[in-house]
Write a structure and sequence with these properties.
heterodimer, A: 116 residues, mainly beta, six-stranded mixed beta sheet, four-stranded antiparallel beta sheet, 12 strands, 0% helix, B: 114 residues, seven-stranded mixed beta sheet, 11 strands
Chain lengths: 116, 114
């Protein structure tokens, strides 16, 4: 069964608009972490934001925020005021497991294109 | 800065060859991971390791093995390379504290099996 599901293969957004990238996850663990990474065309993986399963507040990092809805098992990434440089692949990931053997799994990714 | 280094950026190997992909990290991280990335499939976990000589299968371990003899080095081995193993391979490492921290990635190795 897919642990991380990103249902939007591609998204096109006008510059300066806000964009929401969807992510749902599946786990039976109580303690887990959710991550978003950006992969520009250069191929590097850039960490954007993290949300712990016990964090009560939604995580924010500059223009990035994570809309965490635990009961729905969703962890959507919101990018405010999009910029041309935001065009990239975006991956949602989940870490689960006890300290030690922690597994990190990724979704299929969403290709975001920002139009001028 | 954390540095994760993969030994090759591009590799071309023949079918049936034994292939070694090397990954080294310099931040004393316990956890290390190997993924392959294919269009439309995202990153799929092949193997991961949480300590020296400790390894766990990921979601697609068939056709691969790994070795972790030293904490800083995690090797992916293709015992007998096949054309369906042509892919981008990414190595990552992370701490294993009581909390959760992000993984740091290498630059990737694009492997072509002919």
């Amino acid at each position: 069964a897919q642990k991380i599901t990103q249902t939007q293969p591609g998204m096109f957004v006008q510059e300066k608009e806000a964009v929401t990238l969807d992510c749902t996850y599946d786990t039976s663990d109580q303690s887990y972490g959710l991550f978003w990474y950006k992969q520009p065309s250069s191929g590097e993986m850039i960490f954007l934001i993290y949300q712990g399963s016990y964090d009560e507040q939604n995580a924010t990092e500059g223009r990035y925020s994570l809309n965490f809805q635990k009961a729905r098992k969703s962890a959507n990434l919101v990018i405010s005021a999009s910029q041309l440089g935001d065009s990239a692949m975006y991956f949602c990931a989940m870490r689960e497991g006890v300290q030690g053997a922690q597994k990190l799994v990724f979704g299929q990714g969403t290709r975001l294109t920002i139009n001028p | 800065d954390v540095k994760v280094t993969q030994s090759s950026r591009y590799l071309v190997k023949r079918t049936g060859e034994k292939v070694f992909l090397e990954c080294v990290q310099d931040m004393d991280h316990e956890n290390m991971f190997w993924y392959r990335q294919d269009p439309g499939l995202g990153l799929r976990l092949i193997y991961f390791s949480y300590d020296v000589k400790m390894k766990e299968k990921g979601d697609i371990p068939e056709g691969y093995s790994v070795s972790r003899e030293k904490k800083e080095r995690f090797s992916l081995i293709l015992e007998s390379a096949s054309t369906n193993q042509t892919s981008m391979y990414l190595c990552a490492s992370s701490l294993s504290p009581t909390g959760m921290t992000e993984a740091f990635f290498g630059q990737g190795t694009r492997l072509t099996v002919v």
